[in-house]
Amino acid sequence: MGKCPALMIYLSSFILFVLQTLHGVNSVECFGSSYNRNSSYPKNREKLFSDLADKVVANRGFYNASFGQYPDRVYALAMCARGYDEEACFSCVQSLALDKQNKCQSRKDSFIWGGNDDVSCLVRSSNNSTFRSLQLSPPFVSVSPNSIEPSKTLTIFVPQWEAMVNRTLKAATKANTSSVLKYYSAGKAGFTEFPDVYMLMQCTPDITSEDCNACLEGCVVYFRTKYLGRGGGMVSFPSCFFRWDFYPFHGAFDDVTRVPAPPPRPYVQEKENSKTDKKGRSIGFGGIIAIIAVFTFINILVFIGFIQVYAQRRNLKNVGGAEYSDSDGQFMLRFDLGMIIIATDDFSSENTLGQGGFGTVYKGTFPNGKEVAVKRLTKGSGQGDIEFKNEVSLLTRLQHRNLVKLLGFCNEGGEEILVYEFVPNASLDNFIFDEEKRSLLTWEVRFKIIEGIARGLLYLHEDSHLKIIHRDLKLSNILLDAEMNPKVADFGTARLFDTDETRAETKRIAGTRGYMAPEYLNRGEISAKSDVYSFGVMLLEMISGEKNKSYEGEGLAAFTWKRWVEGKPEIIIDPLLIEHPRNEIIKLIKIGLLCVQENAAKRPTMSSVIIWLGSETILTPLPNAPAFTGSQSQSESGTTMSMSGDVFTELTCR
Questions:
Q1: Of 63, 262, 531, 652, which has the most beta carbons under 10 Å away?
Q2: Which residues are catalytically annotated?
Q3: Binding-site annotation: residue ranges for ATP
Q4: pLDDT tens digits for 533-554?
């Protein structure tokens, strides 16, 4: 076939390039929690952005900084593509910073990859530190409106495109330590029956080579899955950027050597080099190469995994840790009892952080200075044995920024001890139910905490390789780190579900009265909607600043429902929030009521809750009545209750 279709693609792409050059194409993604426009957050961001372009140029193309005080502290990261012209880099960063402030006026998190014909650059900001943090969402995508037709042409194009992707990815992730902008690759290649193809990949230099590889692979997979067949496009995540086209863009290809197109292979030669599979079907030479490549890739991943495990084990030895594998071969960390005793000063009362239903939590400091939280389970408690095994088995398999991280355990000398990351601000109930500390929880902070809890639950219910129902969600089981990010904790009573399992029944009711869904409390029915109910109660407590059990005779959910029906939901709002956006708070009251509906089937999933929290335009359904459990369903102390009858079972990954 001739080059006419390819030439049309090139001409239309070039016209698009001219328009992009004239106007600039900035891929802006605004997300995360919103901020009060009367807060100091936008002013802090404006101050940080005022000299951001100068700082990037002065620091060889990459700059990371923060400004302001919590909770309105702003973190920013900016960079230019390698080989930049200083004037073009300055102009690019300055333009994107201004664009970001104009387009993301209500959201705290955002990233922009953009530029013009001279340079590409990134500006990223958040109310949380983004430095050395790989972020693979949300994606921003921009693709050419042109398609590569007909399908026969695509079959010629795709293998060459895949080969170019592999070359560019390998070059980009092989860190160039001589440059601050160490993850970068730009290239052009000749394609059979097509114009030259231009491709660029880049990661922020603060992440590891492995993270860069994962990020760029994610971009490629996203494009390949949704847009393969389009005549050019880009996919970017906050941590990386991938783009290809039929024309040079961003001035990245001036000094790039063209890779010639591979010679076409005659059909006869391909037949002679083919083999057959077990069913007699032909496997072309390209198929053999693909199989070899897949096996090679798998071996590389295994090798990287071994390196990471070895590093973990080596670090453990510095704090008295040792390796241990359970019956499923799951790697866990076992700490020496003597080292834990030294770290906690023999479980000194001065190091006590809190006390729960099955033990006491102490602060510990290892000789290398690492701070940890040590949970010492009560001796002689059969139920404590189950809690201990359950928590170790689950948390060694779960990793999420909104889940507390289990560092290891100790079962020596009659002790059963869990060692967690140290979370300096303790549990959420110590803030929300304290008259003085509650003033620190502005609406922006409360929204951030609510959204973080929701994301942690979404991970447990849908996004992790396990499907977990927590069963004991309450504010005392939500920990807050130094930046008030929430971490769901205490997985002792959590329940593992099979992949296709949506509901189960149990004779062992484990949890805290007042937070337990009615179908679970009364009939032992467990599902993800049980956790949704508990989340709804916590959400209403966060808004009101009052404990659920403070509303004797009906509970907070029932009290809120009555005020909702009367058209007076604002009655439950904490007086400290009187200056904050009333409509947004009432929207969250509505979400809370949707979560505590008596009919479990009517309750939303956590994915729906996340969407509602992040959208200002999507309408939520009207809630129905919650369960009227009455004061008898709440314990006097609010402590955890558990009834025997269930047994601990080995966990399996899905």
A1: 531
A2: 472
A3: 375
A4: 999 999 999 999 999 877 766 7
